[in-house]
Amino acid sequence: MKKDSKDMDRQFKGQFAQQWTQVQPIVASYVRSMILSFHDAEDVIQEVAVAFAMSFERYDPERPSVPWVLSIARHKVIDYIRAKGQAPTVFDEKTLEFLARAYASVQDESQEIQEALQGCMQRLNERPRHVVNLRYMRDMSLTEIAQRLGMSNNAVYVMLHRVKDAQAECVQRKLKIQWKIS
Would you state the pLDDT for residue 1? Predict the structure, then answer.
């Protein structure tokens, strides 16, 4: 049975969305490290997403997507610098290319750590997980969390410190690595 164009379009969009979701955090980090203005960086990230979508048909799913998308991002950053009439104040093109390769090389390790951390977070009791969510996902201050939960600032601080240490140990056990958290 022949697939109609709507099914193919839906499948294409799904594949693109999946790939973009995987590469977007690293692209955003790369672009934000090159462009200091938050709003300009967000505009460039959107331009990268559009360029990625427009060229997605040429993407070979057998190859890693991060280096390819970072190449697009590097060109968009260069275009931004040129459009603003600025000389690259910090990085030249060779440095941008080197940084793109560096971001791509750490992406796999970062993904493993994120997956291990998600597993460790699921093991937390409800209250510590809620405090972590309030602090890091909702960006609330210790005082705001303490007031909201009827705790002292010190109790919130101690809980977050203990959770951080426990999560670091859990991730280290899962990945069989060792590092010091400061």
Answer: 46
> Are 140 and 148 contacting, i.e. CB atoms less than 8 angstroms apart?
yes
Q: How far apart are CA 52 and CA 29, in angstroms?
A: 17
pTM equals 0.49
Q: Are 121 and 129 in contact (CB under 8 A)?
A: yes
- What gap in Å lies between CA 70 and CA 105, rounded to an integer? 11
Residues with Cβ within 8 Å of residue 80, at least 6 apart in sequence: 35, 40, 43, 44
pLDDT digits (tens, 9 = 90+) for 81-131: 888 875 544 556 666 666 666 666 666 566 677 777 788 888 889 999 888
Domains of the chain, CATH where assigned: 1-107 (1.10.1740), 123-182 (1.10.10.10)
Query: Which tokens belong to 42?
Result: 């967000």
Please check whether residue 160 is in contact with residue 132, taking contact to mean a CB–CB distance below 8 angstroms.
yes
Eight-class DSSP state of 85: T
